[in-house]
Amino acid sequence: MLHATVDLDQYRTPVANLDAIDPADTGPYPPDSDGKRAAQEDVGVLVRRMAERQRQFYADGRFALLLLLQALDAGGKDGTIRRALSGLNPQGVRVSSFKHPTELELAHDFLWRVHRAVPRAGKIGVFNRSHYEDVLVVRVDELVPEEVWRARYAHIVAFERLLFDAGTRFVKVYLHIDRDEQAKRLQRRIDDPTRNWKFDADDLRVRGQWDAYREAYAEVFARTGTNDAPWLIVPANRKWYRDVVVATAVVDALEALPLRWPEPEVDVRSFTVED
Ligand code: ATP
Ligand code: MG
């Protein structure tokens, strides 16, 4: 039993948008230590449900699930993957991190490296950053001319449609933190020796582009938040709430599928196992 149930619809495009969602929201949980404890217990319950459903999802083998994570620096992508998916069978999960493209990747269309990483049927793929960088950082840093990145919204929608038609279901997550929370987290990377390795001076430059990123994200949500692959704008200032929202979304996506156990190809019951 869950302590509370998160209403995902309020966070989904086209209803949701960046201005309407408070990064510090805690939904049905009180914003205090009781709420935190309840949400953490609920993540445990959801993760067990996820793992249970994953068995049949794998056996059924007709669908793939793609959990795609986007966020500003220190938005919490790594922590979300670590905590909200912690009970899954690792054999059925693949995490792909998209960094600066290599020379080989840049010599292809922008979806080439992404298409190779999409999960096969029966598997759960997690994208830590994604093809959306090609209309985010690429736009903000002016890495290609505007007409090139502008054409990509349509390419992305068509690409996701192709994957959907082939059985892929999407959970596209934006981890929504505010400027103060980002400042706190970046400062912690400077102050805490066990987090120094995460510090990247470039993150401070990118922080200066806050408004440009916000505008770029708003356009991403407006143009690519389709019926089949909507965006989920997750309040992420409080990690415990972020985790319970993402875990709920993954469970929801798995439980929405009309899964069945495959019919055995032989009459299984006609066999006996000898001593
Ligand atoms: P962390 O939060 O731990 O720092 P990260 O996802 O930021 O993880 P990094 O190696 O620091 O990982 O950064 C990856 C970098 O690659 C980001 O700055 C991102 O903007 C950049 N990147 C990803 N995809 C593209 C792309 N298609 N074109 C240009 N840059 C990209
Ligand atoms: Mg980084």
Structure overview:
It contains 11 helices and 5 strands, in the order H-E-H-E-H-H-E-H-H-H-E-H-H-H-E-H. It is globular and about 70 Å long. It is α/β, with parallel strands linked by helices and 275 residues long. Helix content is 44%, strand content 12%. It has a single domain (8-256), classed as P-loop containing nucleotide triphosphate hydrolases (Rossmann fold, 3-Layer(aba) Sandwich), CATH 3.40.50.300. It has a 5-stranded parallel sheet, sandwiched between helices. The structure holds adenosine-5'-triphosphate and magnesium ion. Adenosine-5'-triphosphate is lined by residues 73, 78, 98-101, 128-129, 133-134, 137-138, 198, 200.
Concise overview:
The protein is α/β, with parallel strands linked by helices. It has eleven helices and five strands; from the N terminus they run αβαβααβαααβαααβα.
Name its key features.
single chain; 275 residues; alpha/beta; Rossmann fold; binds adenosine-5'-triphosphate; binds magnesium ion
> Do you know the CATH architecture?
3-Layer(aba) Sandwich
Distance between the termini: 42 Å
Please tell me how large the radius of gyration is. 20 Å
Low-confidence stretches: none
Which fold does the CATH topology refer to? Answer: Rossmann fold
Q: What ligand molecules are bound, each kind once?
A: adenosine-5'-triphosphate, magnesium ion
CATH hierarchy class name:
Alpha Beta
Count of extended strands: 5
Question: Overall 3D geometry?
Answer: globular
Strand content: 5-15%
Overall pLDDT confidence = 97
What count of domains describes the coordinates?
1
Strand line-up across the major sheet:
2-3-1-4-5
